[in-house]
Amino acid sequence: MRLEMGFVEKLDFGASVWTDEGTDYIAINAFTMPILVGAFRMVLSHPSVLPELPMSADQKCYFFPHDPRDALILNEEWQFPPLIDPDREYAAQRLAFLAFYFIVHHEFAHIINGHTSWLPHNDILQVIEEAELDRTFARDPITRQTFEFDADCTAVDYMLRLLLVPKIIDNGPPSRWQIPDPGPYGTIDQTVITCAIVLEIVYGFLSRNAEVHNSRALTRTHPPQIVRQHYTIHLIAQTLHVRSGLNPQTIDTQAKRAATSARMAFFRSVAAEMEQPDPKTTIKIEEIIQLYKQRWKILRPQLDPLKRGGILAPID
Q: Which residues 6+ apart lie within 8 Å of 160 measured at CB?
């Protein structure tokens, strides 16, 4: 396996991954890391996020000049100064690193889970790109969205492995973990909170309820952001339950509470109204996730021979 990774200095570019003649390629926006650092500095400038961390009396809350959902995000708009308290600044940089780690491993998952090997034989578009492409570029948008769901499952799994450093006690499938608590990077509770904040910023802040009610929601190559926000937060609990037998309801409640605090801080910073999913939206989100799970049952036998080793992250 030969892997090449590079960075693209283009504002409207997210990330791309593809396989060509035995070489795998990952390309990521060069501005991703500085934007993530700025986003987490902005969120952590609010004392309500990670309240156990000290907050300098001189620290001012940072504000974004416009709603980032309505305009192109410019790198220079995220250049907030370091937080005054060193513990909060360290936390902002650590969260930014974890978010970048998640993004890279999401793209990497498209390779190791067999998606980029499957595409040349089954689709017109052989590149997986983090962009809202119209259905004319893909034969089957639901399959594309299911690939994103699968890659998110794997990336969440990798992020939890990094923070928890579990011991594999049963190879499965799926493999089972014994988790030290506390571990080298903190307790299980701290890991859940950290992952939830990361995923909320990666997927949550660009989401809108209206996405799932749009007639084109299922004709694009990527899931609606609000769907990704919903299922990635749930995946924290699901993964820890399947891997270690932890109570999923307790973890899910904890993760949602941490994500909500980050989301509230973010929307205060951008002076935009924070939407709460209404019952109709929640039902629609669950219906879309069920579509992915149904399609996954069809795709799994096709992907298993193409995956590059290891066990796929649990979806159900």
A: 166, 191, 195, 236, 239, 240, 243
Return d(Cα 103, Cα 100) in angstroms, integer. 5
- C-alpha distances (whole Å) from 266 to each of 81, 93, 173, 263, 304 are 17, 16, 39, 5, 40
Taking residue 108's Cβ as centre, other Cβ atoms within 10 Å add up to: 20
What are the b/e assignments for 262-274, b being 16+ CB within 10 Å? bbebbbbbbebee
Q: Is 3 exposed, middle or buried (0-12, 13-18, 19+ CB in 10 A)?
A: exposed
* Residues 146 and 295 sit within 8 Å (Cβ to Cβ): yes
What whole-number distance in Å separates Cα of residue 156 and Cα of residue 237?
10
Write out the chain's pLDDT in tens, 316 residues: 789 999 988 766 788 999 988 899 999 988 889 889 998 999 999 998 999 999 999 999 998 776 666 655 556 667 889 999 999 999 999 999 999 999 999 999 999 999 999 998 887 778 888 765 554 566 788 999 999 999 999 999 999 999 999 999 988 778 899 999 898 888 999 999 999 999 999 987 767 788 888 888 888 888 988 999 999 999 999 999 999 999 999 999 999 999 989 888 888 887 666 777 788 999 999 999 999 999 999 999 999 899 886 656 656 5
Residue with tokens 């004709």: 219
